[in-house]
Amino acid sequence: MLAALFLSTLFVGSASAQTSLYAQSIQTAIAARTPNLEVLVLDLRTHETLANTFHSESPIPVGSLLKPFLAAAYLKSHPAPTMVCHGKPDRCWKPLGHGSLTLSEAIAQSCNAYFLALAPNLPPADIPFLPPPPNVRPETLIGLTPDWRITPDALAQAYAALLTAPTPAPILDGMRNSARYGTANRTGLHPGGVLAKTGTAPCIDSHCKASGDGLVVVAVPAAHPTLLILVRKRATTGAMTAAAAGPILTQLETLHAQ
Ligand SMILES: [Zn+2]
Predict the structure, then answer these.
(1) Radius of gyration in angstroms for the set of CA atoms belonging to the chain, rounded to a whole number
(2) CA-based torsion, 104, 106, 107, 108: positive or negative
(3) Which residues contact residue 19 at a Cβ distance below 8 angstroms, ignoring those fewer than 6 apart?
(4) 139 C-alpha vs ligand 1 centroid, how far in Å?
């Protein structure tokens, strides 16, 4: 439904003029209702940015939003493994661990132990759509350190490329299940379901109120995504930012229904 609404709105009459008005209406609506959030809205059919309220286009740490790209790199030359997360001893955010995990479950739960185990086996050149910094450590590859920084626009475009290319099934399953019962489950229910990934990035400001900033990427509808939003909320977690992203999606659906 959302896809049809997008197309009908974007391509009636003068395409460029309509797109501009459409983007302006999204930008105005989001800026008015989400003053404490930074939001980027991308049309996955055209890769056009429809709205962007990020305060800066400077590169930012993105935490676990890197993990699906590591998964894509690993799957180029390996089958998806099953591993065991023991929690804190394995440097996972979940103190008691996730237990045995497949790759898709590791994406859904954003398991640090799983991706720290994968990272040493990843040639950085195999990571698609997001070139990592040189001499990168496993902790940086999975977003535990703030050293790999990406602009909001480049991150959204990388997700657009990942989700519009033939996307490996474990990545799609993991992002779908992240929204169903994983770290993005606070995104809520939306027609057609969603694909989502959360990240909690180390804060790099000099006056941080908390140790991290929350981020979430959400693409809808799940089967054939046509819209992607990237949301950042300062001084919180990715899971809590998913809760903030849910009403934004609902707001976009309402906007398109008018
Ligand atoms: Zn874990």
Answers:
(1) 18
(2) positive
(3) 10, 48
(4) 14
Give me ligand 1 centre to Cα 18, in Å: 46
Single-letter residue type at 190: H
Cα of 1 vs centre of ligand 1, distance in Å, is 36
Each residue's pLDDT tens digit, 69-83: 999 999 999 999 999
Give how many domains the chain has, as a whole number. 1
Q: How far apart are CA 44 and CA 164, in angstroms?
A: 7
Residues 258 and 253: their CA atoms lie apart, in Å, by: 9
- How far is the centre of ligand 1, averaged over its atoms, from the C-alpha of 60 (Å)? 24
Q: 20 C-alpha to center of ligand 1: Å? A: 44
- Does 22 score more than 90 pLDDT? no
**pLDDT at position 32, please?**
72
Residue 50 Cα to chain centre, angstroms: 17
Supply the range of the domain harboring residue 36: 2-257
Question: Rounded to whole angstroms, how far apart are CA atoms 73 and 68?
Answer: 9
Pair 132, 124: CB distance under 8 Å: yes
CATH number for the domain harbouring residue 220: 3.40.710.10
Residue 43 sits at φ, ψ, to 5 deg, of: -85, 115
